[in-house]
Structures are given as structure tokens and as C-alpha cells.
Amino acid sequence: MKEKIDPVFLYEITSVAIQGLLYPFGAKDRELESVGPGRSRPVILIHGYGANRGCLYPLRWYLRARGFDRVFGFNFGSAQSIEEIAELLGKFVEEIRKCCDVGKQTVDLVAHSLGGLVARVYLQELGGARRVDRCITLATPHYGTYSSYWTPTALGRQMRPESDFMARLNRPDKRAPGVRFTSLWADRDLMVLPRENAIYREGEDIPINGIGHAGLLLHPQTLRHVLERLRSGQDIPSTRIERTAQLAIGVLSKTRSLLRTKKTPDATQE
Asked: Alpha-carbon distance 216 to 139, whole Å?
């Protein structure tokens, strides 16, 4: 008798394959062009270890379809430390602010895995809290991960739970005042160990059940939660895609209602 394949494993492998296919498209940085004021706060997406901005393309496309007209992916290349990447992020944020002509307006950050630690260094140690309204982390090892012992690199050593970096980043006096934090974490994550270390205790946390580290990026619940929190506090007009989808859903709902009415026997008839 054949054993059934674990659907979580299948979803994770499929997610890794999709992100692998997108990798070549995210390897090359594009020159930023002036886009001016838009309908939404600028959103900057930060990838994780061993990846590039290509793995966040599905989230970017989803946000664009839902009315976010200024969504940018940040690549950090072959930087050797989280602090070095955070400095690069700071420069990128300033470039985005300039090309979007934001003035005093803030930006939002959405970061996967290692990218969440980069975002926190920028916010807590480099003055980024003045520039950012909301930071959403996805499967970020906020308090370290024992899986990093399998990664004998400088970045891997920083992500170990007992590292000096983790002790410094999570000191009680290290905060990012004014920034709203949300941490989404996967209950079947094999990269953040223990999994609860993906919960940042200074903000809200949202578990996504039955999903792994890579699958979290493509899960419908993840997309919905990110969208809802990025929309908080700003009114974004619906896009043509949204209006078409809402019309289609309305037509389907009406059709199903009519079909139910026809199938229901008339109680007045003998």
C-alpha cells in the first residue's frame, strides 16, 4: 500500500520550485525611475537568506493588483553581515523616498526570514523608525534559529540564538518607537527552530497553520493578512481587476441564490 504524500511537504516543495523559477528574474537590479506621489504608501519587500527579490514577486503582483502602485523589491547581494545589509537598506529607502516624492510620508516594510532581522537593525539602530510606519515580518527568526548551525557563514553565525548579535538586537532598550510590527509565522517551519522564535514579542503575531518556511510566501492567508495590515490607515481606490472580481463574485452569488430558490419546493403547493 502506497503512503500518501504529506500535503505540507508537497506545498513546500512546490513553493521552493516556483521561487527557484523566479530567481533569475530577480537577480538583476533595475534602475529606479521617478514615479512621484501615488495612491498608497511605498512598500519595500526584503528577501531572505540565499534568495533575491524574485521570490517576493507573487506578493508584489498581488499587492499591485489590489491597488498598491508603489511596491519595490530590495536586493542585498553578497553582503557579509546583517548590519552591512541594513546600511544598504537605509540607502535604498532614501532612494525610494526620493523617486516617490514622499516628503514627510513614511514607507512600509515587508520582510521574509533574514530580511526581517535586516529591517529591525535598520529600524532600531540606524534611525529607520522615523521613515517607516509598519513592518511585517514573514518567518523571521527574531530570537535566532538552531538551523543556522548548518550555515557556517558570518550571516549564519549571527542568526544563532546565543549569538552576540541576537543578544544586542533583543535588549530591552532596543526598540523602534512608532513602528507597528506584525510577525507572521508558520507552524510547520523547519528553518526557524524553535518555530516560536518567529514571533516578535513587541507586536501582533499571526500563525499560519499547516505551512512551511517557503510556502508561507505563497499562502493565500499570508497575502490576505499582509494586504489588510498595509491598507490600515490609508484609503486605496479599487483597481479594475478588483472591480471585475467583485462583479464576478456578485454574479456567481446571485446565480447560486436563484438556483437554490428553484430547487426549494414551494411549501404552499399541495
From this structure: 8
117 contacts 82 by C-beta, under 8 angstroms:
yes
CA distances for 121 relative to 82, 87, 210, 254, 269, angstroms: 8, 9, 30, 51, 72
**Apex 148 CA angle, 211 and 115, nearest 5:** 65
d(CA 209, CA 221): 10
12 within 8 A of 212, measured Cβ to Cβ:
yes
pTM above 0.85, yes or no: yes
Rounded Cα gap, residues 249 and 45, in angstroms: 30
Residue among 75, 83, 91, 73 nearest 155 (CA): 83
Q: What single-letter DSSP state applies at residue 80? A: S
Architecture of the domain whose range is 7-239:
3-Layer(aba) Sandwich (3.40)
Please write the tens of the pLDDT for every residue from 197-236: 999 999 999 999 999 999 999 999 999 999 999 999 888 8
What is the residue whose three cell numbers read 530580511? 115
Write out pLDDT tens, residues 98-114: 999 988 889 999 999 99
Residue for grid cell 553578497? 78
* Residue for grid cell 499560519: 208
CA dihedral (194, 142, 164, 52) positive or negative: positive
CA distance linking residue 20 with residue 217, whole number of Å: 13
Q: What one-character-per-residue DSSP string does 110-171 give?
A: EEETHHHHHHHHHHHHSSGGGTEEEEEEES--TT--GGGGG--SHHHHHTSTTSHHHHHHT-
Domain ranges of the chain: 7-239
| CA gap 121, 118 in Å, rounded | 5
Residue 228: all three cell numbers together: 489588510
- From residue 88, give the alpha-carbon distance in Å to each of 77, 99, 105, 128, 259: 10, 17, 20, 12, 58
